[in-house]
Amino acid sequence: MTKNNSGLKAAILTMSFIQMATNAVSSILANIATEFPDASVTTIQYLMTFPNLMIVAVSVIAAGLAERISKRTLAATGLLMAAVSGILSFAVHGSILILYVWAGMLGIGVGLVVPMANSLISDYFQENERDTMLGYQTGAANAGSMIMTYVGGVLATIAWQFDYLVYLLAIPGLILTLLFVPKQNVVTQNQVVTEKKKFKIEAHEVLFCVVAAVYMLMFYLGPTNIALYFSEKQIGNTMTAGTASSLLLLGGVVMGFFFGKLAEKIGKHTITLGFMALFIGYTLIYIKGQLIPTYIGCILVGMSNPLVLPQCMGSVVSEDKQRTTVMMSVVFAIANLGTFLAPAITTISRIVMHAETAASRFAFAGMVTGILMCVSFIWIQVSRKRRE
Fold first, then answer.
1. Residue 67: CATH number of its domain
2. Can you give the pTM of this predicted structure?
3. pLDDT tens digit string along 129-160?
4. Structural contact between residues 131 and 256, judged by C-beta atoms closer than 8 angstroms
5. Are 208 and 180 part of one and the same domain?
6. What is the largest CA-CA distance in the chain?
7. Three-state secondary-structure class, residue 27
8. Rounded Cα gap, residues 229 and 29, in angstroms
9. Is 208 exposed, middle or buried (0-12, 13-18, 19+ CB in 10 A)?
10. Which terminal CB of the chain, N or C, has fewer other CB atoms within 10 Å?
């Protein structure tokens, strides 16, 4: 297997299409709220982020399983589960509870796939090429979610449950994974025998886990509230909300192509730049409340994603491939814990802003991300001076 194998790259990128699959339901949250009027706003929002709770547990377990089972098998199993969850959500959707069950199945699938995609990148790519692939991988995740969100919004004009069929996008990734991902893990192939050491997470690794969690907590306020915001402001229809969600993800796709070069020039300040994009994007959405400025704000919010997460992932990579697999899984798990808790912003925002509107939540997020932008800049500068 060569590092430049285009088939492996294609497999990693296509399996990553489902990383942000939960965004696909963002354009139908208002429809689901109408379908189940007894459910609270928070319950509806958690339907979108519930898979991330499963991802938290499964992604860490997957790192352990990768010591005994091939990464190819784990990724393929996850992709199959994601596709099946879409079919079941479309066919059986009579209650909020059953939708949560299928959402949990999706989460298990993603929890198996994404840690393997990140691990394969650390296995087969080095230094700048690795950073570039991490950026591409995040871009691919945004691209997959963008396709699912937009197509889902169109399908939802037939009936809201048709939206779930977009999870079938996992199938191309499944096919390419079976075709191009090696049947054996790198450690097995090279018959590397390492001495068993007590696993310990370093202080700087903990910090990047926290950054990933806090970032995802604030980032997912966008996808979980944009459809409600459009409904609240009476801007367009379901398809318009779907377009906004897709533009948010398009921003992530575009920035994914530039992360490697940016990281080479400004290093960990890509994190600061990411929080800046969130701050400007959320502020623009709140202040204007009109279609075009909201679209621009969504693009900026999306552009923040490949600036922060790949940096957090790349910062825990080491020469020990087994440790790297575990640490990347931990960062991904903690990030998804932040995603799962994102609807809690609704409660916190209501207390702080004394309002329970989507607009007030965007205003609150703008203030918080502005503070985080400043804090991250100071933290990175201080860290640089200590190293010098």
1. 1.20.1250.20
2. 0.79
3. 888 898 999 899 989 988 887 788 789 989 99
4. no
5. no
6. 62
7. helix
8. 11
9. buried
10. C
